[in-house]
Amino acid sequence: MTGDLRVSWARLRGRLDELGAIGSTGDGGCARLALTDEDRAGRDLVVSWMRDLGLRVDVDGIGNVVGTWPADATEPPVLTGSHIDTVRTGGIYDGNLGVLAGLEAVETIITSGIDLARPVAVAFFTNEEGARFAPDMFGSLVYVGGLALEEALDTVGVDGAVVGAGLERIGYVGPMPCPARPPAAFVELHIEQGPVLEAGNVDIGAVTGVQGISWQEVTVTGQSNHAGTTPMAHRHDPAYVAGAVAVFARSLASEMGPPQVATVGRIELHPNLVNVVPARATFTVDLRNTSEADLQHAEAALTARLDQLAAAEGVTIETRTLARFAPVAFDEAMVDRVERVARDHGRGVRRMPSGAGHDAQMLARVCPTAMVFTPSVGGVSHNPAELTHDPDLEAGANVLLAVMVELATADSLP
Ligand code: GLV
Ligand code: MN
Ligand code: MN
Q1: Which ligand minimizes its atom distance to the CA of 323?
Q2: What gap in Å lies between CA 167 and CA 164, rounded to an integer?
Q3: pLDDT score, position 399
């Protein structure tokens, strides 16, 4: 009975810990920024598990890795997966759960010997986080043809590294074409990374879509001067503008109300000295909303505020778009399937949008796509304290497995 299949929890837990140890920050967290030595070591470990299982391992030109069963498959597979890069102060579950539970689902399907109507595959996509190279969901965006490979390879990171050279350095430039041929369907398991499921005492999220994301980098150029001698009325101070924008972002989100969120996450001052009015401030603004119209309203309000500040402070302000993705709705039939399977497993389920960006939002452009969420303790993520309790992780992995079995054995797909 395929409905009775269950993952090996011990094997999945062991792999989460083994991968989580690569780039360990010593406080339960993980630093595996894209295309670093730690990323390479994590990739090599996951690829070794794929090979041990007899999957065909394909690498594309942007370093996305897909492990397919059977190894000689030619038809589009039911694909699962996520990412194994992390933010610098990440946890061990964000992304990694989706890849390792996906591997576990594929392994369980193979060892069960069930007849498949189509291949199954598990992928990890390059640089989902976007913390080093913008935008986020970078590899999956190239995978679906949303960003040209040449442009992606030329992308320069916050530390001056270039994607193409970084991929060569870690040995992850492969011959699989990208954009790739669309899979038959895609389903991704991920921790929620927010407080909704835990607060509602719900076991599983059936994700309806992903909110829109707008990232801008703002560079303010003023006049560097002596902190003691320059009267306040004579200042053209980029640090003041950066602070004013951070305050504005908070009040904009408060005025608009949920689900609008606004974050100033990175601020750099030059020359960054105690007694110097800075010459330059560079900072990022992350705006998100489930409504495209509301997101555009927030962007317009930010632009107006930047114009006001530039005039009032006598500074010049330049902006650069780092990421801009409209809200995404997942395939209804796929979301229904996740909800039904989770209920069949005796789980409480909530349909909900995702606050975080995910590779699934890119795959949704080319194939029926869904996501499964597990609860995050305290709603904490992008933080070493990120945690999902073991029974919740296991329940999520089993829902993923069951959805994949249904998709891989169905006569036809939605
Ligand atoms: C990426 O994972 C994001 O949501 O920022
Ligand atoms: Mn993630
Ligand atoms: Mn993340």
Answers
A1: 1
A2: 5
A3: 98
